[in-house]
Specification:
By secondary structure, this protein is an all-alpha fold. It has a single domain, classed as Amino acid/polyamine transporter I, CATH 1.20.1740. The chain contains 22 helices and two strands. It has a two-stranded antiparallel ribbon. Helix 4 runs antiparallel to helix 12, helix 7 packs across helix 8 and helix 7 crosses helix 15.
Length: about 500
């Protein structure tokens, strides 16, 4: 190849990937949202069922992802998988849809750090500057959130090994806080607080409706396994891609178990109907009997936010970088810092969006959660479709980790993700997104289309073979799609994924 392919530094090990995936899942939700989960589901047992189902039904999806990441360990994994299955346009749309969730979770977490910090240090809520959508922006909180955002950006700019070390340390501390809370809650709690177990949703849903309503948002809270493919290109020499696929496949279930444990413990500590109106149910429920543990929970929440912010910063910048490198968006985003071997311009882009958020304040948190959940689900759907297609057209493709059950698992994963998408988009569904959230999603897609057409000349300046090299690297020489029509675009790259979904 006569064109230059910018490479990232390779330093990550298997435990780094686990902390990347798990740390991106467990943010602030276990402290702030647990009361809402129980109230919406109609009881702690219903909420636990929703999360365990959410984790379990994602297993076929994660097995599918495990097969893909072991076969194509490159930055921006979803871009590579869908490109190989369906071609450039499918690759672009999948990558850009997923980038919404990754990019906007960074400012979401930065602002949430300030929200939690103000509970530990109430003095931060002083010196009000202005109000947006009913939310006050305070100068001390603004400064804190900017410092957090800039620090994460700096760590990531200096090298993935620094980001991985930070992620590992902060995730370990988060897990220790969660374990301490669980033990204290079981010792101090009362089983009578768990009643009624289910069927009393504050939203008016029946038992099944309450479970479905919580199940619809569980992907947002157990998503994170898909951050692992974004950093797969940065794996250290000699890593087992079979084991990398296994690590990816267990992360959502481990997150679901963590959340289910917290739901159970919180409901032990206080009659669950009293939890619904608390600002920080997990901390407030135990504060009266064990103030130290309550403060430890808030510290754990900060750790969760920092681990999630760092993980999604890594994922978003690698995804944006890989799209720029493949010329799906302007090549400006595909540049690498020569000294640190990090995606500098992608880091600058995500940093700017993250830094703007503190000036908007808590108002930024409103539309992101549901739109982010939809973005995850759509990307998962197209990856599953790609895996099924590649099983058919490239049965001999190297797959160090194979999804249990083979192509049947791929079909099941496709069905699961399609149903998840339907829960979010069908009007009247308990999990359906509203008009504001649709407008947010469509505005992001419009920006992506602008970027795509801005890169038209750059994209047309290289051949199909060169583009494949930019996406897959040297390994593409070994696993390039077998194209019987030399010089023409492979048939696998000219297929409409929507048509294939009908076929699947």
């Amino acid at each position: 190849m006569h064109i230059e392919r910018h490479e990232l530094k390779k330093t990550m090990g298997l435990f780094d990937y686990f902390t990347l995936g798990f740390g991106s899942m467990v943010g602030i939700g276990w402290v702030v949202c647990v009361g809402d989960w129980i109230g919406t589901a109609g009881g702690p047992l219903a909420a636990i069922i929703a999360f365990l189902i959410g984790g379990a039904i994602l297993l076929p999806v994660t097995w599918t992802y495990g097969e893909m990441v072991s076969s194509m360990p490159v930055a921006g994994g979803e871009i590579a998988y869908t490109y190989r299955g369906f071609g450039p346009k499918a690759s672009f749309y999948t990558g850009w849809i997923l980038s919404f969730a990754y990019v906007f979770l960074c400012p979401w977490e930065a602002v949430a750090v300030g929200t939690i910090a103000s509970s530990i240090f109430p003095g931060l809520k002083t010196m009000p500057l202005y109000e947006i959508m009913g939310f006050e922006v305070y100068f001390p909180l603004l400064m804190l959130e900017l410092i957090v955002a800039l620090s994460i950006a700096y760590i990531n700019y200096k090298g993935v090994e620094k980001a991985a070390k930070f992620q590992s340390s902060i995730t370990k501390l988060l897990i220790l806080c969660g374990i301490a809370y669980a033990f204290a809650g079981v010792l101090l709690g009362d089983a009578s607080n768990l009643q009624p177990y289910m069927g009393h949703s504050i939203e008016g849903f029946g038992t099944l409706g309450g479970i479905i309503a919580v199940l619809a948002i569980t992907p947002f809270f157990v998503a994170g396994f898909d951050t692992i493919p974004q950093g797969a290109e940065e794996s250290k020499s000699g890593i087992s891609y079979h084991n990398l696929g296994k690590v990816l496949s267990i992360t959502p279930l481990s997150g679901a178990i963590f959340y289910s444990t917290i739901i159970f413990v919180v409901a032990l500590l206080m009659p669950w109907k009293s939890l619904i109106n608390l600002e920080y149910p997990a901390a407030d429920a135990i504060m009266g009997v064990a103030p130290f543990i309550g403060r430890l929970v808030l510290i754990g929440a900060v750790c969760g936010l920092l681990s999630t912010l760092n993980a999604f910063f890594v994922a978003s910048t690698r995804l944006i970088f890989s799209m720029g490198r493949a010329k799906l968006i302007p090549t400006y985003f595909g540049k690498v810092d020569e000294r640190c071997r990090t995606p500098k311009n992608a880091i600058i882009f995500v940093s700017i969006i993250t830094i703007i958020a503190p000036f908007v304040g808590t108002a930024i948190l409103i539309p992101v959660m549901s739109v982010g959940a939809l973005s995850f689900m759509l990307a998962w759907l197209f990856v599953c479709l790609s895996a099924v297609r590649l099983r058919k057209i490239e049965p001999e493709m190297e797959r160090p980790f194979k999804m249990p059950g083979g192509i049947k698992t791929g079909y099941l994963a496709t069905l699961i993700t399609a149903l998840m998408v339907m829960m979010m988009v069908v009007p009247g569904s308990p999990g359906a997104i509203n008009s504001v959230e649709w407008a947010t999603f469509l505005a992001w897609m419009l920006l992506g289309v602008v970027f795509y057409y801005m890169a038209t000349n750059e994209r047309n300046s290289i051949s199909e073979e060169e583009r494949e090299y930019m996406i897959f690297g040297e390994k593409e020489l070994d696993f390039a799609p077998k194209n019987p029509n030399s010089g023409k675009e492979p048939s696998s790259m000219r297929t409409d994924p929507i048509s294939h979904m009908k076929e699947a």
